[in-house]
């Protein structure tokens, strides 16, 4: 299954449909296309969504860095777009992706690795890779 980018007019129409918030953002949920595993949530501005839909390589907006964040540009843990789905209110996007490696900066496959239980939070999965290895830093 491979992604095909829309033509420019169609892409502009899709972007014009989106209801970006006051900060110019929409929520973006990444889900593994073949397993349904929810990997992460991040934010996209118009430029990030445009780049993602044009290139098929997932790009987010980093609120902390105040700029585009191309998933995997530092860690090598990339997301390739299979399909993008817009929710009913056009204020969120579901990205069906092919995740290479881990999605979470903690070194786990998914950012959703803790469950809330009557006893408190429990850890469902351990890191698959040391974050220092991912980002070439020293712990």
From TrEMBL:
User: Under what name is this protein listed?
Assistant: Phosphoribosyl-AMP cyclohydrolase
The primary site where this protein sits is cytoplasm
Q: What is its EC number?
A: 3.5.4.19
Please tell me where Zn(2+) binds in this chain.
88, 104, 111
Q: What does the record note about the cofactor?
A: Binds 1 Mg(2+) ion per subunit. Binds 1 zinc ion per subunit.
Family membership, please give it.
Answer: In the C-terminal section; belongs to the PRA-PH family. Belongs to the PRA-CH family.
Q: Does the keyword Magnesium apply?
A: yes
Job of this protein: Catalyzes the hydrolysis of the adenine ring of phosphoribosyl-AMP.
Q: What NCBIfam families does the database record attribute to this sequence?
A: PRK00051.1
UniProt KW Zinc-finger keyword = no
The catalytic activity, as recorded, is: 1-(5-phospho-beta-D-ribosyl)-5'-AMP + H2O = 1-(5-phospho-beta-D-ribosyl)-5-[(5-phospho-beta-D-ribosylamino)methylideneamino]imidazole-4-carboxamide; 1-(5-phospho-beta-D-ribosyl)-ATP + H2O = 1-(5-phospho-beta-D-ribosyl)-5'-AMP + diphosphate + H(+)
> What general EC class does the enzyme of this chain belong to?
hydrolase
Pfam families reported in the protein's UniProt record:
PRA-CH
**Which of UniProt's keywords are assigned here?**
Amino-acid biosynthesis, Cytoplasm, Histidine biosynthesis, Hydrolase, Magnesium, Metal-binding, Zinc
Question: Which processes are annotated in GO (biological process)?
Answer: L-histidine biosynthetic process
Per the record, the pathway is: Amino-acid biosynthesis; L-histidine biosynthesis; L-histidine from 5-phospho-alpha-D-ribose 1-diphosphate: step 2/9; Amino-acid biosynthesis; L-histidine biosynthesis; L-histidine from 5-phospho-alpha-D-ribose 1-diphosphate: step 3/9
SUPFAM superfamilies the UniProt entry points to: HisI-like (SSF141734)
UniProt-annotated binding residues for Mg(2+): 87, 89, 91
The subunit field of the Swiss-Prot or TrEMBL record says: Homodimer.
* Gene3D superfamilies recorded: Phosphoribosyl-AMP cyclohydrolase
Q: Where is the Phosphoribosyl-AMP cyclohydrolase domain?
A: 40-113
Provide the cofactor list for this protein.
Mg(2+); Zn(2+)
């Amino acid at each position: 299954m491979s992604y095909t980018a829309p033509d420019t007019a169609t892409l502009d129409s899709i972007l014009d449909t989106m209801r970006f918030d006051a900060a110019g953002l929409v929520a973006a949920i990444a889900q593994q296309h073949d397993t349904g595993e929810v990997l992460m949530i991040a934010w996209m501005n118009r430029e990030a969504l445009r780049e993602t839909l044009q290139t098929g390589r997932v790009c987010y907006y980093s609120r902390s860095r105040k700029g585009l964040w191309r998933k995997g540009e530092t860690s090598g843990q990339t997301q390739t777009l299979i399909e993008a789905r817009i929710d009913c209110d056009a204020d969120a996007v579901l990205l069906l992706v092919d995740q290479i490696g881990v999605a979470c900066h903690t070194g786990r496959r998914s950012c959703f690795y803790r469950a809330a239980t009557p006893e408190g939070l429990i850890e469902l999965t351990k890191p698959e890779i040391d974050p220092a290895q991912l980002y070439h830093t020293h712990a």
